[in-house]
Amino acid sequence: MGLPLRRPRVSTFLALGVLLVLGHTTAWASVPGSGTLKAEKDCEAFVSKKKKNNPDKTRLEVGDAYVILEVNRPEQPDWYRVRVEEANPPERWVQASCGTLTEGGPTTPPVVNDGSSEPPDSSRRGGGGGGLCSTPGLQDSFVLALSWQPAFCESHRSKKECGASFPTTFQSAGNFTLHGLWPNREACGTNYGDCEHRSKPREFCDYPDVGLDPEVAKALGQVMPGTASCLERHEWFKHGTCQQDWTPSEYFEEAMNLAQQFNDSGMSKYMALNMGKQIAREDFLAQVDNALGAGARERLHLGCAGGKLTDLSIALPAHIAAGSKLSELIQTTPPDFRSNCPARILIDAVGFSH
Q: What CATH number labels 31-102?
């Protein structure tokens, strides 16, 4: 007759369970985040990072900044939970490698609304109805966003505008291409936009045609190669609808005029001479000052990915009169230089690198 089996005490199992749960929580629980993530890749944005589910095929848009809500761990996180306003639901997990973190940037405040007042500006925009962050004419600045197309195409090779048959004469001459002209409202952070309250379609070409004058559309096709993928539709409905001074044709004419002034200031010659070369970031900024006036560099945001210059944006005032000089507009805005570029940056040449 064998010895009777001893039953483990229930408290032992409970203690082990508590330890396991606590241990799991300590290792994996997400914590609140702050700042913004500037997208450098068009990564998928997942509802659940574990299941990798993305029911509406949401992706980050290169160059956009997204408010960080959570990180998957406090030290060296590899996942950020960000707010993608056009997505449903808007809270999405993206890999940290998808962009550059800006510490101490805007965070999304909790919405407390007892019905007696408007919720905070940043709590509402686009697709879901009103709010000051989706009301046209309330901008307190503009941003001229320009792209270095060869570097953009390195990571977007499937785009029509990056195909081998797409004309590259404009880019080969050292010109920056037009991404957009964005009205901004400081209280909204990066969330001022979508002032017609349209839901973001799956593809840019699913937006309605914006009805540009034929000559404007033809010129825009060169300065903004992304029109091959209907970028102008996205730019108009996301940004252009929030200004009240221009029709769609006038809006893009003004944006093209400002982009041309930047290129013709001497920057296109400088870029053409340095294609395929590494340059000192300081030399590039000195060239900007030389082209557009002392202190112009302090109004720039420079973007890089993998050591390559990919884009830049220029701070401009809230109201831009027709025919304004870019060099004069820049001087009216406060200094706010930002960059994620290294001390030496590569000016990518036209054509794919191997």
A: 2.30.30.40
All structural domains of the chain with their residue ranges: 31-102, 135-346
pLDDT recorded at residue 29: 61
Q: Which two tokens mark 316?
A: 């401009």
d(CA 60, CA 181): 19
Residue 94: helix, strand or coil by DSSP?
strand
Q: Which long-range contacts (CB under 8 A, 24 or more apart) does 228-234 make?
A: 228/159, 228/160, 228/161, 228/166, 229/159, 229/160, 229/161, 229/204, 229/205, 230/203, 230/204, 230/205, 231/179, 231/204, 233/204, 233/205, 233/207, 233/208, 233/209, 234/204, 234/207
Structure tokens belonging to residue 197: 């309250």
Instruction: Provide the whole-model pTM.
Output: 0.68
- Which CATH fold topology does 135-346 show? Ribonuclease Rh; Chain A (3.90.730)
